[in-house]
Amino acid sequence: MLSKPAAAVLKIINQKIEELWEEEVSFLQKLGRYPSTLGKEATVQHYIADYLANDLGLRTETFIPDPKRLSKLPGYSPAEWSYAGRPVVVGTWQSTGPKIGKSLILQGHVDVVSPEPVSLWNYDPWGAVIEGDKMFGRGIQDMKSGIAAMIFALKAVKESGVILGADVLVQTVIEEECTGNGALAALDKGYTADGALIPEPFGLNGLTSQVGVIWMRVKVKGAGAHVERASQAVNAIEKAYHLIGALSEYRKLINKRPKHQDFAHIEHPLNVNIGMIHSGDWPSNVPSLCTFEVRIGFYPGQHPDDIKAEVTEWLFDAAKEDDWLKEVPPEITFYGFHAEGVSLDRDQPLFHTLARAHHAVTEKPLHSISTTATTDIRFYNLYYGIPATCYGPVGANMHGADEWVDLNSVKTVTKTYAVFLLEWCGIHTLPS
């Protein structure tokens, strides 16, 4: 059951969200038309900062993450690129009067993965095209729709005349898709609260567990030559096959081990994915170098350094089985994600409040899920003692062609977040 103050204003808040709906859809389309892939997040971030400051009246700050400072913090993931001109945005709605509730962070990430190959799309990946109840585009599901929902939830509360009993921070960060350093930078900057919600698109479910993730790069050397002397050369691509095969066996091994209890219901919870491979520059040359890059998952409670050591030993052992590789072993390095897994206690106020808000909007119980991916909630829960979870809209084809989000579910998330704000932060002043 909702608290009496929240129940009293629920109808008013829902009506305001309906009134703002066309504006929210237009805002989401605007976000979707910014091609905010890695390194190109600045324009959408400046747009959001301007919107938070001028349309919502929030005290807004933009700042550039400092990787040298962040590298000393738990949870940091090493990046091989510059942060220049790539801001994090934080808008603060400061409560007036005595604090009567709990403060909240609403966080979304603006970075999106590449839409390539675009030839596979039936829609412009940067067009934010609406067809029926769906909006299509790269990053529309993951997770610009969630950003629109969280911002308009706060806007509806604010424009309804409700004064909340605690501060609300609206944050849009960079690099959730590769390091999470944007979220870490905001926390290190001092932007903390009593709880956090991230509207990742998990289909109106609460997130209770996620795997850890590391990224690995493997360089394999061969002995190049013109193809006419191929019998005297060593093809680096073919030698890479041997190690890729070994990683396939490693994937089987880790999934045969006893499962973490949060993932016992998932047949194949740990993925080892060969995501990139580069080699050669001419069809008639035997390539002398092949580089492939890998994403490796592991369970909560395991440390990234232990997984790095295990997979490194696994590959070196595999290299010893090959006459060439045992003499010219691969070069193995790690960059990007060094992300620990997270397992959350469902019996805590954050989940109880989310469950009440979800039920108030949908009239259905809240279900929880474990994901075989990672999100930024790890920073809040593991390193800053801030309870955090994800709850976001319904969609499909995330990271694939024709990514889409269900707009009706975006409205549901907007309403749920608005109710959560009322319940979590408390109501200092009701609408007059």
Describe the structure.
With 432 residues, the chain is an alpha+beta fold. The chain folds into two domains: 4-208 and 342-429, Aminopeptidase, CATH 3.40.630; 212-339, Alpha-Beta Plaits. It has eleven helices and 21 strands. It has a six-stranded mixed β-sheet, with helices on both faces. A four-stranded antiparallel β-sheet has the order 4-5-20-19. A four-stranded antiparallel β-sheet has the order 12-14-10-15, covered by helices on one side. Strand 19 (395-396) and strand 20 form a beta hairpin. Helix 1 (4-19) packs across helix 5 (140-159). The longest helix is centred in the middle third of the chain and has 21 residues, at 236-256. It is elongated and about 85 Å long. This is Acetylornithine deacetylase. It comes from Bacillus taeanensis.
- From the spread of the alpha carbons, the general shape counts as elongated
Kindly report the CATH topology of the largest domain: Aminopeptidase
Number of domains: 2
DSSP helix count? 11
Helical residue percent band: 25-40%
The fourth-level CATH homologous superfamily of the largest domain is: Zn peptidases
Widest β-sheet, arrangement of strands = 1-2-7-3-8-18
Quick one: how many beta strands?
21
Low-confidence stretches: none
CATH class of the largest domain: Alpha Beta
Pfam families: M20_dimer (PF07687), Peptidase_M20 (PF01546)
Family: Belongs to the peptidase M20A family.
Keywords: Cobalt, Hydrolase, Metal-binding, Zinc
GO molecular function: hydrolase activity; metal ion binding
